[in-house]
From TrEMBL:
Keywords, comma-separated and alphabetical: Hydrolase, Oxidoreductase
Gene Ontology MF terms: hydrolase activity
Database matches in Pfam families: Abhydrolase_1, Flavin_Reduct
Domain Flavin reductase like: 258-402
PANTHER family per record: FLAVIN REDUCTASE (PTHR30466), FMN REDUCTASE (NADH) RUTF (PTHR30466:SF1)
Protein name: Alpha/beta fold hydrolase
Organism: Novosphingobium tardum
Domain of life according to the entry: Bacteria
InterPro entries hit by this protein: AB_hydrolase_1, AB_hydrolase_fold, Flavin_Rdtase-like_dom, NADH-dep_flavin_reductase, Split_barrel_FMN-bd
Length: 406
């Protein structure tokens, strides 16, 4: 076990306990208000035994994390803390959050979820707010018998407004494009209701488990049923064993393996024999030689522009920046008015180039080589221009990404 510091929202120091092997899949544990990371002790130990790396965090104003002198405990400060911690971790973890900590994790992952985490587990998270939840929270924060472990700053009670926070949950659910597990216990400290159904249904990749006869309070010793559900979810959604492809097996596995290589995104453009502009999205692109200046791009034989690009005397490779994701989708789809909805101009050889691109390479045809279900188009760079102030649009594991600067 080691201790680690993170920098949270506004520079607040956040303390976490790390357990397990650094090479194992990571799990970030988020407690609820009025608790500390100690509520996860049994869960963390079980996860490590199951081959997981655990990061158990103290929220601001709790345990060993900083208690801000200005008393900033508004809900969005907690949300930004979690986003900051996720951005500082070396790998994307599955986030496991308990009770009202689930609200924090939900809102933290409502945007850019695939960039920050690999999955989300919500344990006994209420789906509604109001005076009843506020009263229950007040009891929980002031009654040591109801699951408080460790030190916490009582100033947070006045800023954790249950009704306002819960009202934001339904709109957040559709943005959580992650495997998500919602676990509820029949003896939860918060009375359950049908209010959770719209939230659960709105999750893009969600599943729900009700353990009707189990009390899921994490400070009790009745965590066996919860651990069984949690480990089953982790093994299905974030397995420890690496997926393997062998010749002759499922080609999708090979595609997923190749998708582990992060790339930029380009649009290759040219004109057909009648002068009509054509183009397609491609991420199999690389430099080939500086002397002579050569680059290559791989084009699927089945693409609509393949025949034109095979024969074109000149073509351009437009390297996309983060604001051009809609353009990438447009040129990757079928039956799209690609150039009619895209800002472009003519290059030196009359080839269409896309305005605002991160980089543009205007090329003459150098060679074409066959490559299975693709062909390799090699171009000699006649002219190149780039915009150093923009950031690239990236592609990794089947999703668009962007650079993160920690």
């Amino acid at each position: 076990m080691t201790m680690r510091q993170f920098k949270g929202f506004g520079g607040v120091r956040l303390e976490a306990e790390e357990l397990g092997d650094d090479n194992d899949p990571a799990v970030l544990l988020v407690h609820g208000p009025g608790q500390t990371r100690a509520v996860w002790n049994d869960t963390a130990a079980a996860l490590v035994r199951a081959g997981r790396r655990v990061v158990a965090l103290d929220l601001r104003g709790h345990g060993d994390s900083e208690w801000p002198s200005d008393g900033r405990y508004e809900f969005d400060a907690f949300v930004e803390d979690i986003r900051a911690v996720l951005a500082q971790l070396e790998t994307r973890p599955v986030v496991v959050a308990a009770t009202l900590g689930g609200w924090i994790a939900t809102m933290a992952l409502a945007t850019d979820a695939p960039l920050l985490a690999a999955g989300l587990v919500l344990v006994d998270m209420p789906a509604r707010g109001g005076s009843d939840i506020a009263a229950a929270l007040g009891e929980r924060l002031t009654d040591p018998a109801r699951g408080n472990v460790g030190r916490w700053d009582e100033r947070l009670i006045s800023q954790f407004r249950a009704h306002d926070i819960a009202a934001r949950l339904p709109a957040a659910a559709p943005g959580i494009a992650l495997p998500t597990l919602v676990v509820r216990g029949g003896l939860s400290w918060l009375e359950q209701s049908d209010d959770s159904r719209p939230f659960n249904a709105a999750l893009p990749n969600g599943e729900c488990v009700d353990l009707a006869e189990e009390d899921l309070l994490l400070v009790t010793d009745r965590t066996e049923a919860f651990m069984g559900v949690l480990l089953d979810f982790l093994e299905r959604k974030q397995p420890r064993a690496a997926a393997e492809f062998r010749a002759g097996s499922d080609a999708r596995t090979l595609r997923d393996a190749l998708g582990c290589f992060a790339t930029g995104v380009t649009i290759v453009t040219a004109r057909d024999a009648d002068g009509v502009p054509v183009g397609l999205t491609a991420n199999s692109f690389t430099s080939l030689s500086l002397d002579p200046p050569l680059l290559l791009v791989c084009v699927a034989n089945t693409s609509g522009s393949a025949a034109v690009l095979r024969e074109a005397s000149h073509f351009a490779v437009n390297v996309l920046q983060i604001g051009q994701q809609p353009t990438s989708n447009r040129f990757a789809g079928r039956n799209e008015d690609r150039f009619g909805q895209t800002a472009w101009e003519e290059g030196e050889q009359g080839i269409p180039v896309l305005t605002g691109s991160l980089g543009i390479f205007e090329c003459s045809r150098h060679a074409v080589h066959e490559g299975g279900d693709h062909f390799i188009l090699v171009g000699k760079v006649e002219r190149a221009q780039f915009e150093p102030r923009r950031d690239p649009l990236l592609y990794f594991r089947g999703k668009y990404r962007r650079l993160h600067f920690a």
